[in-house]
């Protein structure tokens, strides 16, 4: 292992990965930044327009709406993934039998492609022919709802798909962390008369705080990448009510052929993603200190 | 030191060779020879489903061409979702990967491509092979861009109509509407009887666009549309306002969830007796013939209703050559030209044999083989007027169409007022002048 002390040798070993990473991650970002400064429709002359695309973004009401929708989308996805994932993981720790089976069942959606899941949910949400959710509503004596068409329900409906899909992953992460908390401490707390809720909030959650923060980052980054479900289910509609930044970027670039403006939105998404991750990692650093 | 430089050089060159190999593999597909006996491959990117009779016919003709000594392999990449097709095609072209043959409407985009010499001039080609007169003018001229240029060959002749459930209409005590006001009254009568008046594929965009375009077409012919595209008219002008108000009124009679319903689901709703009306075109005629229609379902159709003091006649309605066939001029050599000539000379009779209206004049010797419904539609087409309605999504800029498609569902659901709708469209028109 003498070779690992030689920094130049380390650099050489890292070089292939660095070159590949640069080519597939950094180059597209740099090219997007370049395109965002142009007015280009894909076939005509590329005209340099400076920051005009970014200035246009500020006055674009649809962009503003997509931005707000995106924040709501992230909140819904994170609450579902982390909230349900954690709750199920806690309940699993109390389960004596069938734990493996339940874990497998909850994990299955995570390995299915998001397009298939969105098709499945489009069917569940369907009004006519009546989908699963409306059959349940009918059984409960409620009126059916066109979930994907109504302004009030559409964003919740599309965000829930991605939220639901990855509950299993967070359940596994939280469960692994929860069972690693020493049983002796839990037993001691029980002997001292602590209730299960007190044990959960005062012992278990503080013990796995690092895992919770890591899960927050994973969930946030995943939600920021959200695109396939809203695009596939509603194309951002009706009237941009389920539009998020990624779908708006895609539509501007590939439907309206405004590649410069689409690239400007893409650059904003990259900046927001970096800010989001930096904020959380800074918070994590403060916590660990 | 030299050894280290050598190692770095080796790694970099390995990476670059890897990338280089990939870029080489993306060379022009038509130049590549096929695996089977060196047949020339022509890559056709199609917006129709692989089972569509246009594609079936093209394949039949290619087989016939090869039987007569040709050596062409038609490689079909089918992408039936039109929005996704358009996006993929534009991305391919922007990336310098234009397919050898592809479907294209005579949109402003096609005009731009044509101006830059990126499309084959079909006027010149048809003149050269002496086949221009074989086409029905309605079908051929539909493929002309706003400046009158022809870059596409039509593969079909389609008309659009609204099918209705005869029993539901009888039960509601109504007849097929002749005017747009009667259409609204009929919808109300059906609604009062508990029927869903319209089963419409709003998720696919164009069925709603057709209804929106109806009022302006009856008021002005295609003038209002042409003026919108050239910036002479605004959506907030009278025909546009009337159109928006009409959509706001008729929208309440669409099935709930229409904005995410695709055309196939709309058709199923109608065929399963869950909706009273379904707007579509002759390409779906086979679903309504006596042979194929569900038993007990009585249907009939009516063409575009009119208005009082209409500028266009009742026999002027949606009629066009459908999305046409374009050819990449960079690969259009003598061999390709010979193959395309063979297609032009043989396509229409073969397509007609599949019970579809063909874009070229076809001699029909024996009509006993054809379904009566097909013959009736053919008779209608023979009596069609001189002004065919042009679809908005072919004439207007794609960004304007995207704005209309985004806002129309809200207008139909009463979530958006006609004023808000026309304002949004006008902003898009201004931004794309």
From TrEMBL, chain A:
The record lists the membrane-crossing segments as 12-35, 71-94, 106-127, 164-186, 207-228, 259-280
Specify the ABC transmembrane type-1 domain's residue ranges.
Answer: 67-280
The membrane topology noted for this protein in its Swiss-Prot or TrEMBL record is:
Multi-pass membrane protein
The protein's location, in the record's own words, is: Cell membrane
Alphabetically sorted, this entry's keywords are:
Cell membrane, Membrane, Transmembrane, Transmembrane helix, Transport
Q: Which GO terms describe its biological process?
A: transmembrane transport
Entries under PROSITE patterns matching the protein: ABC_TM1 (PS50928)
Q: Name one GO cellular component term.
A: plasma membrane
Record InterPro entries? ABC_transporter_permease, MetI-like, MetI-like_sf
Q: Which family does it belong to?
A: Belongs to the binding-protein-dependent transport system permease family.
Which protein is depicted? Sugar ABC transporter permease
Natural source organism? Lachnoanaerobaculum orale
From TrEMBL, chain B:
Name of this protein: Extracellular solute-binding protein
Q: Which residues cross the membrane?
A: none
For this protein, the record's InterPro entries field holds:
Bact_solute-bd_prot1, SBP
Highest taxon in the source lineage: Bacteria
Mind telling me which Pfam families this protein's record contains? SBP_bac_1 (PF01547)
